[in-house]
Amino acid sequence: MTSAMAAGSEHRGRKPAVIWAMAGTVFWAATAYLGILMFDAVPRIAAFDMNLLVEAGRAVAAGQSPYDPALIRGFAPAAVDLFYSYPPIVGQVLAPVSALPLGFITVAWAILSVTLVTLVVVRIGRLLAAQVAPATVAAATVAVAAMTFPLLIAVLFGNIDAFFPVLYGLVLIAALSPRVRDQAIGGVAIAIGSLTKVYPAGLGLWFLVRVARARAADRRRPVTVLAVAAVAAGALVAGSVVLFGLGPWQDYTTVVSTAARAEIVDGRNAAPAAQLALWLHLDSGAARAFHVGVVAIAVAAIAAGAWFVADPLESLAIAAAASLFLLPISWIHYPAALLPFGAAAVLRARSSDPRTRRRVGLLTAGAIMAGVLSIPWMPSLWIGIGLALLSVHTSTPRDRTPVLARRPAGRAKPITPLGHGGAVVNARAPVASVRSASGALGDLSGRHPDDHGRGDRLVGRRGTLANPTGRSFEWPMTSAEGLEE
User: Fold this and answer.
1) Taking the CB of the first residue and of the last residue of the chain, which one, N or C, has fewer CB atoms within 10 A?
2) Mean pLDDT of the region 277-303
3) CA atoms within 13 A on the CB side of 202
4) 458, 465 in Cβ contact below 8 A?
């Protein structure tokens, strides 16, 4: 009978994965068909961003500058014009594959980006919802990626932002995981993102504030991320200079100066300053003046979220959303970077009550729908970002008292009440039986290790779990990962 029940449970666990896989197949088949039509159109309306990157790679392979000579001479373009303005390292990385057909590169680009973001979300699922089968998480991620309009646009256009959900997801893992390896990878992700599009540097600011916020014993995580990010960025730039010389970087500084004078007021530019100037019928000079205030608000939001919001998922989600507004140009595909945070909210809500799960699901679906509605009305993109943040906030565990995942054999003698709600913890329970309110095996207080507020706290990898009563006992790990392994 036990074997039959186990087999039935396994069968039920497979059903969601099969359903999501079928949905993903249909969605991506439709996307592929649309992509073919757009690619074959005259003029071509797909892969034009990819073409810019490939042309830059070909120029680098030929020993030339990846930048348009007009930009180097100081002729300011319109922001919506197609021109290569990335740091030279992007074209240099693509130089080895630039001889391949554009269509092949675009398809490989799309497959690689979706595959990597799926692996990232599966890893997030292990941290926040270990009870959900990885196959279900993977299949759902592939399907939802095809419904996430900003990511879909990035894939169809061949934009480099198709990989930003991967980079932002790796940074989120670094904020959640106790593994030094994950933290190092998150630091590399910040370095790559910052050297590619600048605005992911806002995530570095988040870790910097978390260093100042944390107790000395809890600073290892953010310090590791920042140190690796700095070393990785320096190594990438140094490698570029050694292999290709300083000239491309000198050209880049000129291009940045020229692009700063570009016409940015356009309906396709989702940046708040540009949209405000458009509504008020003002020029790009006014938009740049407005953008100074937008940057101040975004930086303040990153710093305040890092300092005042204890939950690392919600805190970093605020920083991730705010980072999208750091530049005066913000295209419709930028919010694709928030996909891992929406996935994390849904996964974390799996350990909550049904009402919370429904609310998180509806808010996440609303964020996806708002992305679609941004085609006729660009400010809908901001609404989608707000709904995504509200989804993350709603998924935050409200009951932070520890709960027992399973009871050991025999009668258990409770010990001193812990936490905010006075729940008890079984002293004889196996370590793996304690599950935090967020659904991930972790600290008994349900709080992040660098939360230095009043009440329960953890110190170090083998710290003391203390409570307001003054009684305490040793707890061996600060995270789910340690309990899993």
Assistant:
1) N
2) 96
3) 28
4) yes
Q: What percent of the chain is helix, strand and coil (3-state, nearest 5)? A: 65, 5, 35
Number of domains in the chain: 2
Task: Judge if 332 and 447 occupy the same domain.
Answer: no
Residues 326-359: pLDDT tens digits?
999 999 999 999 999 999 999 999 999 999 999 9
Percentage of the chain exceeding pLDDT 90: 69
Give domain status of residue 287, yes or no: yes
In a shared domain, residues 105 and 31: yes
d(CA 455, CA 463): 15
**Token pair 């006075």 is at which residue?**
422
Which residue is it, tokens 């789910």?
Answer: 480
Q: Which comes out higher in pLDDT, residue 217 or 296?
A: 296
Q: Where are the alpha helices (DSSP H) in 130-179?
A: 134-147, 149-157, 164-176
**158 phi-psi bin (left φ>0, alpha ψ -120 to 50, beta other):** left
Average pLDDT across the chain, whole number: 83
Which residues are within 8 A (CB) of 219 and not within 5 positions of it... i.e. 6 or more apart? 211, 450
The radius of gyration computed from the CA coordinates of the chain, to the nearest angstrom, equals 24
Instruction: Give the integer Cα–Cα distance in Å for 43 and 41.
Output: 6
Note down the domain range covering 456.
413-485
- 198 and 248 together in one domain: yes
pLDDT for residue 151 is more than 90: yes
| Residue 434 backbone dihedrals phi, psi, to 5 degrees | -95, 125
Q: 340 to each of 35, 148, 188, 385, how far by Cα in Å?
A: 24, 11, 17, 13
Which residue in this structure is represented by tokens 């990438």? 236
| pTM of the full structure | 0.81
> Measuring CA to CA, how many Å separate 251 from each of 194, 200, 235, 396?
18, 22, 20, 47
